[in-house]
Amino acid sequence: MSVKSYQKIIPVTAIQFEGNSSTHTDEIFAFVQFPISINLAGNVVELRVIVNPLKPLVVLVGDYIVKDTAGTLKHMKQDEFESEYTLMK
Fold first, then answer.
1. Which domain holds residue 63?
2. Number of folded domains in the chain?
3. Rounded to 5 degrees, what angle do the CA atoms 43, 39, 71 make?
């Protein structure tokens, strides 16, 4: 028997954090269904998804919030997300 390569396809839904606009943050809140906050201190805009008060998801502009089929949320950097997932049509 020879060695063969396999690919695992895992469907997810995701939203990219585009910055601090009320319409976009409303979309994010509807997607994550957890409290969110925006940190505007300093040079970087951070979105915090309060899944766990002691360890929120911290997402920077351009990065993704990914939800798997079980509903679990995770943060992914833009380059990591784009190398791992392709848009389904």
1. 12-83
2. 1
3. 125
